[in-house]
Amino acid sequence: MELFLVKVFTEGKKVVGKAFLSKKRFLVKILVILWLFFGMTIVFF
Fold it and tell me: Which UniProt keywords are listed (predicted)?
């Protein structure tokens, strides 16, 4: 039973870590897009 819980915990941690990383990457993409967008608007106006 304890071994099972440890396995579930480690797998869960992996999944959460992956989700967090992908979310982070997603946020970075949004920030880069916003930065480029604002940079372009500042250049044009």
Answer: Membrane, Transmembrane, Transmembrane helix
Tokens of 7: 């396995």
CA 38 – CA 29 distance, rounded (Å): 14
d(CA 16, CA 27): 16
Alpha carbon distance 12, 18 (integer Å): 10
* Per-residue pLDDT tens digits for 1-45: 788 888 888 988 898 888 888 888 888 999 999 988 888 777 766
Gap between the Cα atoms of 40 and 7, Å rounded: 49
What's residue 44's pLDDT?
Answer: 67
